[in-house]
Specification:
It is a single chain. This protein is mainly alpha-helical. It has 2 domains: 1-47; 60-199, no CATH class. 55% of the residues lie in helices and 3% in strands. The protein has helices spanning 2-43, 77-92, 97-111, 141-145, 147-159, 169-177, 189-199, and strands at 60-62, 65-67. A two-stranded antiparallel sheet has the order 1-2. Residues 1-11 and 17-48 have low confidence and may be disordered.
Length: 201
């Protein structure tokens, strides 16, 4: 009788232990699954960078364009003002929104829509929104550092090229800028279109 009693208790202990292990496994599996789902929401391929928190400022006028505080496509007012100068330069030449977006896309790629007073590894003498070189093709330093003038010179060179209208946006930008990678500007095209559309309302 004593032997059977110990065996019964042992079986009950083993059953309870196995049940606890199974329940624990289910809980752990659930926790891991939930953590993976949360991680996928924030780091998966479809995740986007958090939009910047732009200063709460009043809209400013750049010509006839009212530039909001932002963000628009991840850019705040200080950089959107430069996009507005690019748009106005294109408008002064009778250039439509598609080509305006090419100009904005190019400046996004070259400077992040910042009017930079320094160059980069590819050209220490590069300056401005378009990182234009001091080779005489882009005017004086003051011209290159003036967003409107720099953009106007960009568009003048682009529209002076035979067949420029048949080029893709990144090909058009590359034809003017002659950078190392002809596809470099592709990733900026959608954001440039968004900015131009928003500032053209």
């Amino acid at each position: 009788m004593a032997v059977r009693g110990r065996g019964g208790r042992m079986r009950r202990f083993v059953v309870r232990a196995l049940a606890a292990i199974c329940i624990g496994g289910v809980l752990i599996t659930g926790l891991v699954w939930g953590a993976n789902q949360l991680l996928a929401q924030h780091t998966g391929p479809a995740a986007k960078a958090t939009a910047p928190v732009c200063p709460a400022v009043a809209p400013v006028a750049v010509g006839t364009i009212s530039v909001p505080a932002g963000p628009i496509a991840g850019f705040c007012q200080d950089r959107l003002v430069n996009a507005a100068h690019i748009i106005n330069a294109a408008r002064s030449l009778g250039i439509g929104t598609h080509t305006q977006a090419i100009g904005v896309m190019t400046a996004m790629g070259e400077s992040g829509l910042r009017n930079l007073n320094y160059g980069d590894a590819a050209g220490a003498d590069s300056r401005g929104l378009f990182q234009q070189r001091a080779n005489g093709a882009w005017g004086t330093l003051a011209d290159r550092m003036d967003p409107y003038t720099a953009a106007r010179n960009f568009f003048l060179k682009l529209t002076g090229m035979p067949g420029w209208k048949s080029l893709t946006p990144t090909q058009a930008a590359h034809a003017v800028q002659v950078n190392a990678d002809p596809n470099f500007y592709t990733t900026y095209w959608q954001d440039a279109q968004t900015v131009v559309a928003a500032l053209s309302r």
